[in-house]
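Assess the record.
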Amino acid sequence: MAPFKSDDSATTGEAGDVRGGRRRAARYVVPVTVVGVAAATIGLVPAFAGSGDPDLPEVSAQELIEKIAASDVDQLSGTVKISTDLGLPDLGGLASGLGAGGGAGGDDGSTADPSARLTELATGTHTLRVAVDGPDKQKLSLLDEAAEYSVIHNGDDVWAYDSGSNEVYHATGGADGKDDAAPGTVPGNVPATPKELAEEALRAVDDTTSVTVDGTAQVAGRDAYKLLVEPRQAGSTVGAVSVAVDAETGLPLKFTLTPASGGAAVVDAGFTKVDFAAPSAATFDFTPPEGAKVTEAEELDTPDAGTHDSGQLPEPGEEFAQGAEGLKGMKVIGEGWSSIAAFDTGDEGLPTASSGEGGGDLDGFLNSLGDEVSGPFGSGTVFSTRLVNVLITDDGKAYAGAVTKEALVKAANTDR
């Protein structure tokens, strides 16, 4: 493996060696954006505020990345706080009005369906309680003031329970409880923990990326190193990604993504408590409460687009090959952190209330995000967040990426 340069910054060959065949950012970051996963994994408050600075032995960026890769922690329990600030307006009743198949409940859906409930992580601040005991036992609980929502994987069974509605979702799968699970099971690559978020960020490392060690911190009472990942390119809306890595185990304890525009982080996820002892076996037991409505996964109608036969979202890097099959003429413009996915929506522009199409909450939500633009490509609307932006032209072309509005317009102009 090639050593890092003296400034401890990962460059083309080095980053590729460290990750062992890591896909280029253009084949990962943009597809994730297109399928909406990015919205659930971006925008947390500053990660290391108020933390101590423990005195630890010096380590290079290469060594720290290797430490993360070698981490074999498979038993833990703890509490994770995750905050997401994409600058989106309040979704209000929009999400609940998208239909029962989206988790709104009713005769053909379930409020306990994980495929819909985990989208709550796309906005606001949430507290998660997590427990892991090897590959066959995991539990994630989303806590709020009035209720608790839990997803439990125990062997062949996946259970989800919404205490607020007293509804239960159940799916069964193969021996690993995941690969052969029924449609509607927990999406396998919707990150919710610092480790999952860090792994996704590191997959984007290539010659357009700088990787350095940025001192130390203390997270959840644990000494940690801070790994700093920064785009080298102009035009990206990503400012930097910070990962706090447990000095003893190599487990990422905190993840923060800050935007190039400055201000509060877009995503901040970190342990506030963590224990590496094996959780009690009873943690993963579940029996539907008396009177609860139980919905089996096969009873739900689930969308085919962007999913595997198992109901799982594609693994990182597979989005182009599989999710893009349903996107007409999908291609990538540019590379690295400034890459843009371009495709044909199949529609003549966007439906509007004045045209008699769309309308209602959805129309109002889209209009609140939209900014009309024009150029040699024609005219269209840019829908903006603090990280992910999408240009949809009036003739139905779409350009999406973690790039500025100006970069999208330039891409549309050169694409014609």
In short: The two ends are 42 Å apart (CA to CA). The chain is about 15% helix and 30% strand. The chain has a mean pLDDT of 74.
